[in-house]
Write a structure and sequence with these properties.
By secondary structure, the chain is mainly beta. It is built from four helices and 15 strands.
Length: 265
């Protein structure tokens, strides 16, 4: 199924310190979570076959187009998982079955006065980025292929490569595997339109209960350059997932490495 036919959702606050560094902790001050390390919620960044800005397919592969207006845009290096979505007879989500994963740039503008997270997430064509290949998920639990993967990101500016996000093991996500899956199912069914969050069940209905969902599961913490530098035209973005047993964090391709490379314009 083409990604253009799939609902695309993101997870906010699933890596320690990211929201603080991004200056977005205040947005969630009234959002109560069950545990201290729980993500803050889910947001949509693409709703297929709908009107409005979220109905415009934003995911590119080799280009990142900054907004036409002045905006502070940052890379959000993430892992995106393609899930099959299973519903019951009353259209509640009862299961998510992980199929494969790739690297993702959930590029975000730091927009004052935005009422919803989604308003910072999609502004047009090529406002997001997805990796050049996929890794099949054998099982979305400990002991599976994802155990050994790390995620890192870089920005190349004026010929100099800077670490943008910290190099982090996927096992460093606050919620991962079954804990994340159960939390996602609950939020897809019960999250209300409150503060920066939106009612996901309503979006699923509007999108006619899509059979799959692409879910970006949270951005890593920033390295120093990433925390203090917004993207500029001419930059090059790299988001890399690599198997620590066989790969390194470099830009050389391998069968077990996924590389997202975007030129910023």
């Amino acid at each position: 199924m083409p990604l253009k036919d799939i609902i695309c959702l993101g997870v906010a606050g699933n890596f320690a310190h990211h929201l603080e560094q991004a200056g977005e902790l205040e947005d969630f001050k009234d959002v109560v979570t069950q545990t201290a390390d729980a993500p803050k919620g889910i947001f949509p960044f693409y709703l297929p076959n709908t009107e409005g800005f979220l109905g415009l397919y934003p995911i590119g592969t080799d280009r990142l187009t900054l907004p036409s207006y002045e905006a502070n845009a940052q890379v959000e290096p993430e892992i995106a998982v393609l899930f099959d979505v299973i519903y019951n007879d009353t259209h509640e989500v009862v299961s998510l079955e992980a199929q494969k994963f790739t690297t993702f740039n959930d590029c975000t503008i730091r927009k004052e006065g935005a009422k919803k997270i989604s308003e910072k997430k999609s502004w047009g064509l090529n406002s997001k980025g997805i990796g050049n290949s996929w890794i099949a998920i054998d099982k979305f639990e400990e002991g599976g292929v994802m155990d050994n993967y790390h995620l890192c990101s870089f920005v190349k500016r004026d010929g100099v490569v800077h670490p943008y996000g910290v190099d982090a093991p996927l096992l460093g996500y606050s919620y991962f595997y079954t804990r994340l899956k159960d939390w996602l199912i609950d939020k897809m069914n019960t999250q209300e339109d409150f503060g920066p969050l939106e009612n996901i069940a309503t979006h699923l209905k509007t999108c006619k209960y899509p059979k799959q969902a692409l879910i970006s599961i949270g951005a890593t913490a920033y390295a120093e350059f990433g925390e203090h530098n917004y993207l500029e035209s001419g930059d090059e973005v790299y988001v890399i997932a690599y198997d620590k047993r066989s790969d390194d964090a470099g830009f050389t391709a391998s069968p077990t490495k996924v590389i997202l490379h975007q030129k910023v314009q």
